[in-house]
Amino acid sequence: MKNRCGRVLATLLCFAIFTGLFSTVSFADRGNYGDGNVQTEGDFRYQVIEASQLGEWDASLGLTGDRFARLVGYTGMTGNLTIPSTLGGCPVVWIGGGAFKGNNAIQTVTVGANVRYIGKNAFENCGGLQRVLMANSVREIGAWAFNSCAALKTVTIQKDSRLTAIADGAFYN
Q: What is the DSSP string of 125-145?
């Protein structure tokens, strides 16, 4: 009986590992505030988030101020993309999930100085993306953020980076 329990436990543990039940870093898309109140500035689509809307996780990002921007979309076709530090006068602290998904024109991304979180699937399937320059302000990279970016060869993370978490599959190809 004891041997049988050991085999069952081992089988369950293997199942859990292979299905990702015990992922090292796994979290939902942080800073997700739905699709309401989307504004546009140039080729960027964003939401303004009031400090009073921030949840417990948002507070852990060390944000100061009354209003923040969450980048939710991009309509441009530039090769060298710089994520702005501000949109609508608010610091851009989140790149929302899927914001640049499938944009094959982007070759280089420079992440703005205020960005704290890159959302899940943010740059998924950006087939032309070759290089990412991370600001030292980035603290977390969400699941599948750069998934299926087959041309991606270089990701530069600064020495004084505050990056503490890279979710499962963030750079899976």
A: T-TT--EEE--TT--EE-TTT
- Cα distance between residue 17 and residue 29, in whole Å: 22
Lookup result for tokens 């090292």: 24
50: closest CA among 39, 40, 65?
Answer: 65
Instruction: Judge contact between 46 and 7, C-beta under 8 A.
Output: no
CB 120, CB 167: distance < 8 Å: yes
Which pTM value belongs to this model?
0.77
Q: CA nearest 128: which of 156, 158, 148?
A: 148
- Segment 39-66, tens digit of pLDDT: 999 999 999 988 777 666 566 666 777 8
* CB proximity list for 144: less than 8 A, separation 6 or greater: 120, 121, 124, 167, 168, 169, 170, 172
Q: Is the dihedral of CA 80, 37, 86, 166 positive or negative?
A: negative
Residue 121 sits at φ, ψ, to 5 deg, of 60, 15
- C-alpha closest to that of 166 among 144, 137, 134: 144
> What are the respective helix, strand and coil percentages of the chain, to the nearest 5?
15, 25, 60
